[in-house]
Design brief:
The chain is an alpha+beta fold. The protein has 28 helices and 37 strands. Among the domains are: 209-298, no CATH class; 318-454, no CATH class; 466-475 and 512-649, Barwin-like endoglucanases (Beta Barrel); 737-845, no CATH class. The chain is 32% helix and 17% strand.
């Protein structure tokens, strides 16, 4: 809602206003923005997401990591696959969850400040949270900075930075000492000892945000009311300073109490030695000089994060959904029902391809006649001399003969024959299309539509059945995450884990193979139905043996699918190896890149390979510009990383970020100037381009307690908007007044104005056939005899007016916006008149 993004949204809404698109772009965009585009963090705002470099097995390649407890305490505003817009490195990304990074620090309703320990702790206290003081870390890969040629920002002092500094010291001074000191988090006493002995900064676990307070504020917290063995007490006036520091503390009636670890840290850093203020500019420098313990700034920069579109996992359908690609015209009514069209009259006409059965002298839509089984033929008639032709060109007249025309078609008879052949009874509505879009008006056999309807499937424009899911990268997984047994994975070739040990446990980390995919359970169930459709089609329509014989989603594991992105024409072969309780399709960065996608929130289609081979036809596609897009014209069976997009080549594959990298972040270098981080590009055209994709941060989970975000689960737009505002008030790094101001300015006001203007330019729609009229006909009803209704009514104009009034009264939005909303209310009353009950009474002036 800020900067360029806000400007782009406003211009989209302006376009909707000019076209009078009440239920199109304006309304849809408004619902998306209000309900789904919450602001989680503003750039350079204290308490926002702290930048952390690196990637986990499920981040990188336009996917960022946050701690899963953030989703829990924010009422699941985000979920796996939710798109977010980042101000650094200025791009979109999807959300993934990593539980080995910094957790939020929150203030409870009783005033206590606590650092959330883990997801279970966060769930336990989430209803008691009054304010999120610090949101924790956001994990962004170096590769995303490299892809955007972005400048690197100074790194906060994080655990991996500390490890690299200690590693350097150990190699220099104790080359033969055990490196086990690097494998675990030291206790506070150990951290002090390491810091003093090796002259490296204090471990990040025991750091507070010292750089966020001023020298004067430091002087204030040097004056506690009491220092005991394991507690330090402060007056309540110091609370804001302690919250800036992110120090957990308790609130009593009169005091603020630091206990145990917090008290020990404060004592060692502030009270064990006298504090010297001479010749030191910053608080960390003052503490370092006085205590002899080097203090690094824990904070780096705050990343601005706004929620974009929600995650997606749903069947890919035409609008509206159809069972079969057969033209029903207006005879099928609003539901485009072939049964209704076939029973409407004895003569059914449609614009269809010239295919005839010479034996039965009937039009046909199949290569073999449904009635006699003979081969059908294509007839052409010259438009000039009316001669029967064998080819679509008249040599005599030098004219091209049409391949289709409006003609009678025995639809009822064909539906009966299809039912008899397939042994399936058709149900109402049996949905077709208004008209065919391909050049020759070639229709699909009705039998296929019958099978789809019986299995609750729909067809896409090219004859295939598809399921869409948001893309998300994944390089490693645990068998326990994907619901596939170790035995089955061993059958699929996963014999060893990522460390080279034999695969025996569901909790071992395994590197995913280049073209393997992990899909949502919902997708798996839909594809099982598709398998049944293909098997019935093979057996009853084509007279062949079944191919899949799949009974459940477990049987589907190991089968091949095609991944296809919109606006492309090449499908990429993948193999299903498991499922997750998410709404994303996990695959390697190279697999997504082969589809010409960067996984930043895009949703691509998954279809069974056999479905594409058996049912796809280029003849179903439109001959217009773009008609061949979003269709598997070609299938790429093998993914080669050196043929993928350059973005995938910038994907980092290192186990750790070296000390040189962290030091480079303080030098203002661009990511392209860094050469110490291994990326895929350095491995191209070698065997290592296919495997050995290491990561810097581990995680124990892929998802949270809910697989769907609030945008997808809450029904009412007002409920969604209330949640957005509630979260804005909860997060310290967000100004709720600013959020409300931008929503009103860029969305509510343009929507009301646009709908009011569209009211005077609206169309009228028939309640039966759906035909639209620019003006009411003289007959005062549709040509089909049914009534006409308005497409825009007063409630549709006022739908956000009450919300806007409530917002301008509750939040500080300024006098201009408040007056603008009430002016719009008066304008609506001028157009429609005041509603009953709006008349003011004398008692209203009391």
């Amino acid at each position: 809602m800020y900067g360029l993004e806000g400007w782009e949204w406003l211009n989209e809404l302006k376009g909707a206003v000019q076209t009078g698109d009440d239920e199109g772009a304006s309304a849809k965009r408004l619902k998306e923005v209000i309900a789904g585009r919450s602001v989680l963090s503003l750039p350079n705002k204290l308490g926002g997401f702290r930048l952390r470099y690196g990637r986990s097995c499920n981040t990188g390649f336009a996917s960022v990591g946050v701690h899963p407890v953030v989703a829990e305490i924010l009422h699941h505003t985000i979920a796996v696959g939710t798109q977010v817009k980042l101000d650094v490195p200025s791009k979109g990304a999807t959300v993934a969850f990593v539980d080995t990074i910094e957790t939020p620090i929150v203030r409870l309703k009783n005033g206590n400040v606590v650092k959330i320990q883990n997801v279970e702790h966060g769930i336990r206290i989430k209803n008691d949270i009054d304010k999120i003081i610090h949101l924790g870390d956001i994990l962004i890969s170096y590769g995303d900075f490299l892809e955007n040629n972005s400048q690197l920002f100074p790194s906060g002092y994080v655990e991996e930075y500390w490890v690299e500094e200690l590693r350097e010291k150990l190699i220099k001074y104790e080359p033969n000492s055990g490196m086990e000191k690097l494998e675990k988090t030291p206790s506070f006493d150990e951290a002090l000892e390491i810091s003093l002995n090796f002259k490296i900064p204090l471990h990040p676990k025991y750091l507070y945000y010292w750089e966020q307070i001023s020298v004067d504020e430091l002087k204030e917290i040097l004056q506690p009311t009491n220092i005991a063995d394991d507690t330090i007490t402060y007056p309540k006036k110091h609370k804001i300073i302690l919250e800036k520091l992110g120090v957990p503390h308790e609130v009593s009636e009169d005091d603020l109490i630091l206990r145990e670890m917090e008290a020990r840290i404060f004592y060692e850093l502030l009270f064990a030695n006298p504090i010297k203020f001479e010749n030191q500019n910053t608080v960390p420098e003052i503490i370092s000089e006085s205590s002899g313990i080097k203090i690094r700034p824990k904070f780096s920069i705050s990343i601005g994060v706004r929620i974009g579109r929600p995650e997606k996992a749903a069947a890919r359908q035409m609008k509206p959904p159809v069972h079969t690609l057969f033209p029903v015209g207006e005879k099928g009514g609003m539901t485009r029902d072939l049964l209704k069209a076939s029973n409407a009259s004895s003569d059914f006409y449609c614009n269809i391809f010239h295919r005839m059965c010479k034996n039965c002298n009937e039009p046909s839509i199949s290569i073999n006649c449904q009635k006699c089984g003979n081969r059908t033929s294509t007839d052409y008639v010259c438009p000039v001399c009316r001669s029967d032709l064998d080819a679509p060109y008249c040599q005599k007249c030098k004219k091209k003969a049409p391949t289709h025309s409006f003609k009678p078609f025995p639809l009822k008879q064909k539906i009966l024959l299809a039912q008899e052949k397939m042994g399936i009874r058709v149900q109402e509505p049996f949905k077709g299309v208004m008209e065919l879009i391909n050049q020759d008006r070639i229709a699909e056999p009705l039998e296929k539509g019958l099978i789809r309807q019986s299995l609750d499937l729909t067809v896409f424009k090219d004859g295939t059945v598809r399921f869409d899911a948001t893309n998300s990268p994944l390089t490693h997984f645990k068998p326990s995450w994907i619901g596939t047994s170790v035995e089955k994975l061993r059958e699929l070739g996963y014999t060893h884990d990522a460390d080279g040990n034999p695969l025996t446990s569901p909790d071992q980390i395994v590197e995913i193979r280049m073209q393997d995919v992990i899909i949502p359970f919902e997708s798996g169930r839909y594809l099982v139905q598709t398998c049944r459709y293909i098997d019935i089609e093979l057996e009853k329509f084509y007279g062949k043996s079944a191919f899949y014989n799949v009974r459940n989603i477990d049987d589907l594991v190991g089968h091949l699918v095609i991944g296809l992105a919109p606006h492309t024409s090449v499908g990429i072969v993948g193999r299903i190896i498991g499922y997750t309780e998410t709404h994303v399709c996990y695959g390697t960065p190279n697999w997504h890149s082969a589809k010409r996608r960067d996984a930043d929130g895009d949703a691509d289609s998954i279809m069974l390979l056999m479905d594409a081979l058996l049912n796809f036809s280029r003849q179903f596609l439109s001959d217009k510009i773009g008609g061949l897009m979003d269709a598997p014209l070609l299938i790429q069976p093998i993914v080669l990383p050196h043929e993928s997009q350059p973005q995938a080549h910038n994907f980092e594959v290192t186990k750790k970020l070296p000390l040189e990298f962290f030091e480079s972040t303080f030098q203002g270098k661009k990511a392209s100037e860094i050469s110490c981080v291994e990326i895929i590009k350095s491995r191209l055209e070698t065997n290592e381009q296919f495997y050995g994709y290491h990561y810097t941060h581990s995680t124990s989970t892929l998802t949270t307690s809910r697989s769907r975000s609030a945008y997808s689960t809450l029904g009412s737009m007002l409920d969604k908007f209330d949640m957005q505002i509630r979260n804005a008030e909860l997060i310290n790094a967000v100004d709720a007044n600013e959020i409300v101001t931008n929503v009103i300015t860029t969305h509510l006001v343009p929507d009301i104005i646009g709908n009011l203007r569209a009211y005077g330019r609206q169309k009228f729609r028939c309640t039966a056939c759906g035909r639209k009229y620019r003006r009411t006909p003289l007959l005062q009803h549709c040509i089909c005899g049914n009534n006409l209704i308005q497409t825009i009514t007063r409630p549709s104009i006022e739908k956000y007016l009450k919300l806007a009034k409530r917002l301008v009264e509750k939040y500080e939005v300024g006098p201009y916006l408040r007056g603008r909303i009430y002016t719009l209310s008066d304008e609506i009353d001028l157009v429609f008149g005041k509603r009953k009950g709006d008349q003011l009474l004398l008692t209203d002036y009391e």
